[in-house]
Amino acid sequence: MKAKGIVNEFFGEVFGTFILILLGDGVVANVGLAPRLAAPAYNWNTIVIGWAFAVVIAVYVSGGVSGAHLNPAVTLGLAAKRGFSWKKVVPYIIAQMIGAFLGAAAVYLVYRDGLMAAGMPNVWATGPGAVFGASFWGGEGAASVGGYSIVTASIAEFFGTMVLLWGVMAAFDAKNMGLKDNLGGLIVGFTVLAVGLSLGGPSGYSINPARDLAPRIFGTLVGTKGLFDGLYWLIPPVLIPAIAGPIGIALYDAFITKNLPEK
Question: How far apart are CA 77 and CA 165, in angstroms?
Fold first, then answer.
């Protein structure tokens, strides 16, 4: 890959991940700070729908430049199982982290007044104390109110990330159902919606190390407390998706790819 190519891809990943977090953490902040409907109508469902459309828009905007990985779990999976150059892995992950950090900064600018008035709550990352989790449980957060342990949250992230990779693989697999590339981004968004609705409760479904870690760093810098307490921040939202990504593709190949008809 020529230098100009990797530079273009780098900025494609920055821009795409910026959009992902701007809209994704933006809907979390909107639900947590400025509800416009009664609580039963404006909560977890709003968040997961918002995140799904954030993914769709980010993929369609940046896909033609970088392939719209927008997620280290996807990048690692594609490098391990799909021939994506290992030389690009670190630049892609750095780009995703930068984009996610800048996206969180933009959310801060949009919701700064409300965030400051509320004491700078955690609209940035998943896990204990997150507005994300409080919208599901109606309390302090998924891990504390729901009683889920770090092990259970890790299991949820493991399966959620694998489902994400299965959706990504199927969405752009020309042999599988004849799906065309121009529909792939929509299918990925629906996959994220399904993960959020069905598997998101125990952990808040990070399923993306950059999506969780970079906004968590930004949130700490602007005064959100407790984001790096204990080891939760490292294990379910960061390490588990990074491990589950390649495993998800390996399982897709084992059960789907090898059984698809030749075309």
Answer: 8
- pLDDT in the model for residue 39: 61
DSSP 125: S
Q: What is the pTM of this model?
A: 0.94
Instruction: Tell me the CATH architecture of domain 3-259.
Output: Up-down Bundle (1.20)
**Are the CB atoms for 241 and 203 separated by under 8 Å?**
no
Asked whether the beta carbons of 197 and 156 are under 8 A apart, the reply is no
* Residue 122 burial (CB count, 10 A): 25
d(CA 121, CA 104): 13
Phi and psi of 173, rounded to 5°? -95, 105
pLDDT of residue 256: 97
Residue 122: helix, strand or coil by DSSP?
Answer: strand
Tokens 């407390």 correspond to: 225
DSSP letter at 39? Answer: G
DSSP letter at 124?
S
Report the pLDDT averaged over residues 178-188.
85
The one-letter code for the residue type at 56 is V
As a whole number, the mean pLDDT across the chain is 91
Predicted pLDDT at 147:
74
pLDDT at position 139 over 80: no
What is the pLDDT, as a whole number, of residue 143?
38
Tokens 């449980």, residue? 137
